[in-house]
Design brief:
Blueprint: E1 22-25, E2 31-34, E3 40-43, E4 50-53, E5 61-68, E6 71-77, H1 81-85, E7 96-101, E8 104-111, E9 117-122, E10 130-134, E11 140-143, E12 152-157, E13 163-167, E14 176-184, E15 189-201, E16 208-213, E17 219-223, E18 226-231, E19 236-240, E20 255-260, E21 268-273, E22 278-282, E23 288-291, E24 304-307, E25 313-316, E26 321-325, E27 330-334, E28 345-352, E29 358-362, E30 365-369, H2 371-375, E31 383-390, E32 393-395, E33 412-416, E34 422-429, E35 439-445, E36 452-455, E37 459-463, E38 468-477, E39 488-494, H3 502-563, H4 568-595, H5 602-619, E40 623-628, H6 639-658, E41 664-672, E42 675-682, H7 689-693, H8 702-712, E43 716-721, E44 727-733
Parallel strand pairs: 33-39, 40-41
Antiparallel strand pairs: 1-2, 2-3, 4-30, 5-6, 5-7, 7-8, 8-9, 9-10, 10-11, 12-13, 13-14, 14-15, 16-17, 17-18, 18-19, 20-21, 21-22, 22-23, 24-25, 25-26, 26-27, 28-29, 29-30, 31-32, 31-34, 34-37, 35-36, 35-38, 38-39, 41-42, 42-44, 43-44
């Protein structure tokens, strides 16, 4: 049995607990001890790094001057310990602020080069405040500034030997400050007066929370109404204030603290506010970059800001001490659980020692520490997945074959059914120093890749995960602010329902493909059947009706020759029979050509049009010019379109030869915007279209038939003719407007 003596320097809360039953040390460096009847005892690693002291607010403040990055600043403490450590402690209270000294209320304290200490002597309701000088021998001498009607309110240090006195109207003896007075403590004369850019009104807080003397000879003032920069050499003021419409302005006008940036103190200044976090001010541009709880700060009340030698900033707040890294924007919070006297600190109470140690004071006491020791905190703590719940019911997913419960921290896989509606995963970081300060972040690869900050919550819930593979990853941050970069992971497989499996989907794809192929084969067979019927009809028309008509024409010709001139009436009738038979044979030939599937392509149409046109125009002594645009012959028309196109062409050319008395017939066949255009024009005598289209006129059925065929094609027929100026017939139609059944060609391709 081990005995652990926890007695320290007399300030340890457990100094009276002498005997323990056992003790151990965890990975964070915390000491744990079991007691006899008093439970477990924990001594945190950080508590050994903080030195605390008690405070006595009734004694007033001690003024402590310090330097940070070349800037001279001050702090106010209820204890004399910081003053003693920084070598600024006097035998009397001459260095105090708001305390009893030499029989009056004393608001000090600034020491000059001759050893005198300057402050304000407050006489209450008896008379106005006075500027006072405490001489080295302890005697206090009042000094008249010689600026009647402006009593002094505050004494502040300046560059060199000068002092600055803040004054205000005598009818506001303490509440209003409106002027800075430069004072020479050697000659005891006022050497300059500078009205403030705005009146500073004392309410709950002192008007100036921090007075920072910059190395360039200027002065920065953190006030209750904005940040003021004063250049004594030029006598000019610059103000930096909050602007609700400008995100680069100060976040608040109530300023508590100032700190030069440790990496660039000449150009950058940190500004702490009452309730809006802090800001990094660029002195060159006046623009601020804001930091608050929205950016990860634990609290927005920044009482004090002090740097360490590694570039970190230590912030005193309402919830504890914060170590802030400006390079990464990350924060670590230290609280009373880590050894601080309390979590709520005071405004004005901060100081930096020449050895780098930092002093802060709060409501429960003060603390001094070496930031280098805190920066050497333990590393990260391991993170483990502690359990999985389905609809808030725990799943025994980490029980091995031998029944031993495992922590599931590495390489586990979990398989769940598709109807898992709500999946919850629990996790924990192995740091028990201050469990409430542990932080977590997680992500679910396969769902999203971004890390989700989960704060102090050690659970993550997912609803209605789709079937698939996921990897849950979680990382924990311990109380020292160190993340476990390795973290813990769990592979999760959500199985699909039977209708979502690969084999079912494959069967569906095969079934759809089979149906599509069957439909294709059906259409192909139907097309082949139509082609076969067309070819058979063409053969039958040619062989049966064509041969019969040829015989009729032949018999009528023979009869005409044998009859001679003996029966004139019979000869006329026989000539009529021969002529009609010939016309029917030509029409039959056109029908046979249109029905025959071998003539489905446009090239056959053009070839037949050329053959007919050349034959009829040459016989009439005319000239035919046929122009076909490239690409037209590659088109495919259905049987009805091919027939109607050819017959309209044939009628137009036949009319030009028969009635037009033309010298030249021009035919063009082109394609534009998906439509086919046929133009037949001649340079003949022309005609009157209205008269020619009338059945009571002499035009017959030619033009009405052309218009009817154009309508059946879904096209537009235009006839333009003027007697004496020729004729122009134009046909435009869309080859995709098909009404026949032969949409597929004989090789199985869709003709569209």
């Amino acid at each position: 049995m081990s005995v652990l003596d926890l007695r320290s320097d007399g300030n340890d809360a457990y100094a009276d607990l002498l005997l323990t039953r056992f003790h151990c040390q965890d990975d964070m460096g915390n000491l744990w001890a079991g007691t006899q009847g008093l439970g477990a005892l924990r001594l945190t690693w950080s508590s050994r790094l903080f030195t605390n002291w008690k405070t006595d607010p009734s004694r007033g403040y001690d003024v402590v001057h310090y330097e940070v990055a070349g800037h001279r600043q001050f702090g106010l403490f209820w204890s004399d310990l910081p003053g003693r450590e920084l070598g600024q402690q006097a035998k009397d209270r001459r260095n105090c602020f708001v305390c009893k000294h030499a029989g009056s209320e004393w608001l000090g304290a600034v020491k000059d080069d001759q050893g005198n200490t300057w402050g304000i002597m407050d006489h209450g309701d008896v008379r106005m405040p006075e500027l006072g000088c405490t001489q080295p021998d302890g005697r206090v001498v009042p000094v008249d500034l010689g600026i009647g009607g402006k009593p002094p309110h505050r004494v502040l240090p300046g560059h060199g030997r000068e002092l600055w006195v803040m004054v205000g109207p005598d009818h506001f003896p303490w509440d209003v400050h409106d002027e800075l007075v430069r004072f020479d403590p050697i000659t005891r004369k006022v050497t300059g007066r500078h009205p403030l850019p705005r009146r500073l009104v004392l309410h709950e807080y002192y008007t100036v929370a921090q007075w920072s003397l910059a190395p360039d000879g200027t002065i920065w003032m953190a006030t209750v109404d904005g940040l003021i920069h004063f250049d004594p050499a030029e006598g000019t003021f610059s103000e930096y204030r909050h602007d609700p419409t400008d995100a680069t302005s100060l976040p608040s006008n109530m300023i508590f603290s100032l700190c030069p940036d440790p990496t660039d103190p000449e150009n950058l200044l940190w500004v702490g506010t009452e309730g809006e976090g802090m800001a990094l001010l660029d002195k060159r541009t006046g623009a601020c970059q804001r930091y608050s709880s929205r950016q990860g700060l634990p609290n927005n009340v920044i009482y004090g800001i002090l740097p360490d030698r590694e570039g970190n900033l230590y912030l005193s707040t309402n919830v504890g001490l914060v170590r802030f890294d400006p390079r990464t924007g990350t924060s670590v919070l230290f609280t009373s659980e880590d050894g601080l006297p309390g979590n709520e600190f005071n405004r004005y109470s901060s100081a930096l020692g020449p050895d780098g140690r930092i002093h802060f004071e709060g409501m429960e006491g003060g603390v001094v520490f070496d930031p280098a020791a805190l920066n050497g905190a333990p590393g990260g703590s391991a993170t483990h997945i502690t359990g999985v719940l389905n609809m808030n019911t725990p799943l025994p997913v980490f029980v091995t074959e031998d029944g031993v419960w495992t922590n599931g921290s590495r390489g586990r896989e979990l398989t769940l059914p598709y109807d898992t509606r709500m999946l919850t995963l629990g996790f924990s970081v192995m740091d028990h120093t201050a469990p409430a300060k542990n932080q977590y972040r997680y992500r679910m690869s396969g769902l999203y890749e971004e890390w989700v900050r989960n704060g102090a919550s050690n659970r993550a819930t997912f609803t209605n995960l789709d079937p698939g593979h996921y990897t849950f990853q979680v990382q924990g941050r311990n109380s020292a602010g160190v993340w476990d970069q390795e973290g813990a992971s769990l592979s999760i497989v959500i199985t699909p329902p039977w209708w979502g499996t690969w084999w079912f989907r494959s069967l569906v794809v095969l079934a759809v493909a089979g149906l599509l192929y069957a439909f294709y084969r059906y259409r192909l067979a139907r097309a082949l059947e139509v082609v076969s019927v067309r070819d058979r009809i063409a053969r039958d028309l040619h062989d049966e009706i064509g041969s019969t008509l040829s015989s009729v024409a032949l018999y009528s010709t023979v009869a005409r020759n044998k009859a001679g001139d003996r029966v004139p009436e019979a000869n006329a009738m026989l000539d009529r029979i021969t002529e009609s038979t010939t016309e029917v044979m030509e029409a039959m030939n056109d029908i046979v050509w249109a029905v025959n599937s071998k003539n489905d392509d446009m090239a056959q149409v053009v070839q037949r049009m050329r053959a007919f046109g050349v034959a009829i125009t040459e016989a009439a002594g005319m000239q035919l010019k046929l122009e076909v645009e490239p690409g037209v012959q590659a088109m495919t028309l259905d049987m009805a379109q091919r027939r109607d196109l050819y017959l309209i062409f044939k009628e137009a050319v036949n009319n030009a030869v028969k009635y037009g008395q033309a010298g030249t017939v021009r035919v063009s066949l082109a394609r534009a915007a998906g439509r086919v255009q046929l133009i037949v024009e001649d340079d003949g005598v022309g005609f009157e279209p209205v008269v020619a289209s009338s059945r009571n006129g002499t035009g017959g059925n030619g033009l009405p038939n052309m218009r009817r065929r154009a309508r059946e094609m879904g096209g537009e027929l235009t006839i333009a003719s003027v007697p004496g100026n020729g004729t122009r017939i134009s046909l435009r139609f869309d080859p995709r407007n098909r009404k026949s059944l032969d949409r597929m060609t004989s090789d199985g391709r869709d003709s569209t």
